[in-house]
Amino acid sequence: MKTQRWLSFNFFTFFFTWGVFLPYMVGWLTDGKGLTVIEASIIMGAGMIIRSLSTFLLFPEATKRSSLSSFMRYSALLSLIIVLFYIPSDSFGMLLVITVIFSLVYPNILAAMESSGSVLMQKENINYGKSRSYGSFGYIIAVLLIGIATYTWGENSIVWILILGLFLMVLTQFLPAPDTLKGPLHKSGTSGEGIYKTLLTSSSFITILLLTILLQGAHTSYYNYGFIYLKEIGVSAFYIGFILNIAVVSEIIVFAAADRLLSNTKVSTMFIIAAVGSTVRWLLIFLSPNVWMFVLSQLLHALSFGVAHYAFIKYISIRLPDEQIPAAQGMYAAFAMSLSTALLTFAGGPLYEYSPKIAFLGMTACSIPALILVLATRKKYSY
């Protein structure tokens, strides 16, 4: 199988499951399992904290002993087994335990997949944006399917579609992987501690990581409460999937064209675009809390998420040697995609119950400092 196609298939199946787990789990826990928004936020927040620790500690250590392809294969299989335990569980305690265990394994697949993309950009000159757009397309299919399923069969269909997605991902992981990914990435004599020390003492990398923490954390209210927010303002479950997919369509457009349109754009410029787009996005929802403004704000996902994510991938693929990429991806997944969202989720639950539009406005507390940071450091670190 061609490398480009292999990466595209893997992105598609993973983000199909991500399109179920990320935007709908709070809705499933509240409507399908009868928990309160605060209880569901605690469960998801705890899962994100575990996710951050796992991708920071477990993933880089695993790549010393296992190839990326093998790691993804067995992580996908274990994730499928774990998620089956959601079906009979109804208590807050059991749902919390299952989510924590699931979060130890499942998110590492994304870190491994993104690392694979970065390595294949270096070694085989694949088009990352093209393959990553397949991931966004998988996300779209999942969100549309969930919208139809919840409208027809109710919120309990969410977990069954997640199981279906994980089963498809397991099948995809057993396709022949590129030879580049079949061996460990660490060069002989290179220790994990040395790699972390190098990254953590690099002011440029730490600045980039902090920017991604702020910009990805700014999506917390959208990821956790977008589904229930649309329900509360009177949108039918059937149409919610279509509305949420507007963001992903805009993201696909960015990833599909990124290698062509952004190839000569500085990483710092991309972060400025992302920070401005993010700030405007949350202000729009706060100022006009209605479905049409929410739909309009979805277009800005192309900037707030898509451009920010591509900026990080471009930075590490250009600036870092391949043996440092898993550690960098693990830190990105741990802190930007997990820990920042987890901490903001704990605050977001009570804030959302007080006022949904304030919960969205609160995300500018991340996007505005990100804009200030990139403007203050872009010349110093020449990124």
From TrEMBL:
<feature type="transmembrane region" description="Helical">
    <location>
        <begin position="94"/>
        <end position="113"/>
    </location>
</feature>
<feature type="transmembrane region" description="Helical">
    <location>
        <begin position="358"/>
        <end position="377"/>
    </location>
</feature>
<feature type="transmembrane region" description="Helical">
    <location>
        <begin position="71"/>
        <end position="88"/>
    </location>
</feature>
<keyword id="KW-0812">Transmembrane</keyword>
<feature type="transmembrane region" description="Helical">
    <location>
        <begin position="134"/>
        <end position="152"/>
    </location>
</feature>
<protein>
    <submittedName>
        <fullName>3-phenylpropionate MFS transporter</fullName>
    </submittedName>
</protein>
<feature type="transmembrane region" description="Helical">
    <location>
        <begin position="38"/>
        <end position="59"/>
    </location>
</feature>
<keyword id="KW-0472">Membrane</keyword>
<feature type="domain" description="Major facilitator superfamily associated">
    <location>
        <begin position="6"/>
        <end position="360"/>
    </location>
</feature>
<keyword id="KW-0997">Cell inner membrane</keyword>
<feature type="transmembrane region" description="Helical">
    <location>
        <begin position="158"/>
        <end position="177"/>
    </location>
</feature>
<dbReference type="Pfam" id="PF12832">
    <property type="entry name" value="MFS_1_like"/>
</dbReference>
<dbReference type="InterPro" id="IPR024989">
    <property type="entry name" value="MFS_assoc_dom"/>
</dbReference>
<keyword id="KW-1003">Cell membrane</keyword>
<feature type="transmembrane region" description="Helical">
    <location>
        <begin position="267"/>
        <end position="285"/>
    </location>
</feature>
<feature type="transmembrane region" description="Helical">
    <location>
        <begin position="291"/>
        <end position="312"/>
    </location>
</feature>
<dbReference type="InterPro" id="IPR036259">
    <property type="entry name" value="MFS_trans_sf"/>
</dbReference>
<feature type="transmembrane region" description="Helical">
    <location>
        <begin position="238"/>
        <end position="258"/>
    </location>
</feature>
<keyword id="KW-1133">Transmembrane helix</keyword>
<feature type="transmembrane region" description="Helical">
    <location>
        <begin position="7"/>
        <end position="26"/>
    </location>
</feature>
<feature type="transmembrane region" description="Helical">
    <location>
        <begin position="198"/>
        <end position="218"/>
    </location>
</feature>
<keyword id="KW-0813">Transport</keyword>
<dbReference type="InterPro" id="IPR026032">
    <property type="entry name" value="HcaT-like"/>
</dbReference>
<feature type="transmembrane region" description="Helical">
    <location>
        <begin position="332"/>
        <end position="352"/>
    </location>
</feature>
